[in-house]
Amino acid sequence: xxxxxxxxxxxxxxxxxxxxxxxxxxxxxxxxxxxxxxxxxxxxxxxxxxxxxxxxxxxxxxxxxxxxxxxxxxxxxxxxxxxxxxxxxxxxxxxxxxxxxxxxxxxxxxxxxxxxxxxxxxxxxxxxxxxxxxxxxxxxxxxxxxxxxxxxxx
Length: 154
Hints:
Low-confidence stretches: none
Distance between the termini: 41 Å
Structural class: mainly alpha
Number of helices: 2
């Protein structure tokens, strides 16, 4: 019996590999995004600690040097937090791009799988027709041979 061979099988395998690669890329960006959000949370909690320390000191005698130090720390953390937010937004843009690339790769792979399935159904149908034609031929030959044997007996 003949074996089904999809003529675009190499392309289908390439599409599957591309899809797999896109999944890995998206997973890496998701991981990086989570890490960067955690960094942002850490920075914001450090800033909160500085504010609470400053509030405690403001209840007592205020030293200008301490206020300047707190102001410098607050300005530093606010700047880093702003940079971190910008970086996170950029990562989210990259994440959306990778999601769209993955969706496109999924669609392309699916299209080739549908094509493969249609070709397989067509191949199976043709194979069944050939088998039926062969069986019909065998039946005709057998009937003809049986008829010839009857004529020889008479």
